[in-house]
Design goal:
The model is unreliable at 304-308 (pLDDT under 50). Strand 9 (189-191), helix 7 (197-209) and strand 10 form a beta-alpha-beta unit. The protein is 42% helix and 23% strand. It is elongated and about 70 Å long. Helix 1 packs across helix 2 (18-25) and helix 2 packs across helix 3 (29-43). The protein is an alpha/beta fold. It has a six-stranded mixed sheet with strand order 4-3-5-13-6-14, sandwiched between helices.
Length: 309
């Protein structure tokens, strides 16, 4: 087993065929086929389903490990460059959608200004999708909803964010100056699924007050939740920053009174070494949130702030 064989396997998984993998690696198809076949003989399993050009179940496991090996090798070069020169290399950061809208443009510009040789890769997804990617080593850091119940991860609070009721002007609650939890009992809502931090906090508070929330639909992703509310599918409880202040239309944001805030934090693996590029991006991210966070409607930046990403 050597790095060329692992690289060939990853290329087939990424590009969907041996011929496409060969083009990506600037080699011939027979070389790719030989490397994958050698791995299969050594491991005693089929790694690629030739009829589909996709990894088998066993192949997926090996591909995941191979990606981590490739990332560690890239990290060696990044570590050494950080000792003798400015920081360079790749940092992979996950960000939940509504936060990504205002954070990512500022973050990428700041990284470019401070660390021009770092290549930042941003993955936008829900917390339930980002957490397993972080645990698996596919991401270096992730901005997620808190709490995160995973023993493999450490988290640092970033900010708290108010929730609002987003609805079209035709909805019965659109005329309210403010909405209390008890006002929602008679109205089915667009909610995040049970088991997500936002929904669990809402349900805990509803139970405490003797209120039963009714889900019109459960959507794992605040941006999609917001889009459905814009389209008139139903009223939605969303983070304040899900609705840009400049956006206009036949909808309204109604303040929610007595609702728990959304807690957002930065997560990383406990036992993994964070590469210099990822550490540098993490520090820049904290600075950007400290500067830009208070300018976002309904956002309260966590204090005291730490610079240890």
């Amino acid at each position: 087993m050597d790095l060329r064989q692992l690289g060939a396997l990853v290329a087939v998984a990424d590009h969907g065929s041996f011929s496409a993998a060969a083009r990506a690696l600037f080699t011939v198809q027979s070389n790719v086929s030989a490397h994958v076949a050698h791995l299969e003989r050594e491991l005693g399993v089929e790694l690629i389903d030739r009829s589909r050009g996709r990894p088998t179940v066993e192949g997926e496991l090996v591909v995941a490990r191979a990606r981590r090996i490739q990332r560690e090798l890239e990290g060696v070069a990044a570590d050494l460059s950080a000792l003798v020169d400015e920081i360079q290399g790749e940092a992979r950061i996950g960000v939940i959608g509504t936060t990504a809208r205002w954070l990512v443009p500022q973050l990428l510009q700041a990284v470019r200004d401070v660390h021009p040789r770092i290549r930042a890769v941003v993955v936008e997804a829900s917390t339930t999708s980002l957490v397993p990617q972080l645990v698996a080593g596919q991401l270096d850091l992730a901005v997620v909803n808190l709490p995160v119940d995973d023993p493999e991860l450490d988290t640092v609070p970033l900010f708290d964010e108010d929730l609002v009721l987003l609805t079209t002007l035709e909805h019965p609650l659109a005329s309210y100056d403010e909405v209390h939890l008890e006002d929602l009992a008679a109205h089915p809502l667009l909610l995040t699924p049970l088991g997500t931090a936002l929904r669990d906090d809402l349900e805990a508070e509803a139970t405490r007050r003797g209120v039963r929330l009714v889900a019109l639909a459960e959507i794992d992703g605040a941006r999609l939740l917001t889009s459905l509310a814009f389209e008139g599918f139903g009223a939605a409880i969303v983070p304040s920053t899900a609705v840009p202040g400049w956006l206009k239309g036949d909808f309204t944001r109604v303040p929610l009174v007595g609702f728990p805030a959304r807690h957002v934090g930065l997560a990383r693996r406990k036992r993994a070494f964070v590469s210099p590029p990822a550490r540098a991006v993490g520090r820049v991210l904290l600075d950007v949130i400290a500067d830009r966070g208070p300018r976002q409607r309904g956002v309260r930046v966590a204090t005291p702030r730490t610079n240890n990403a």
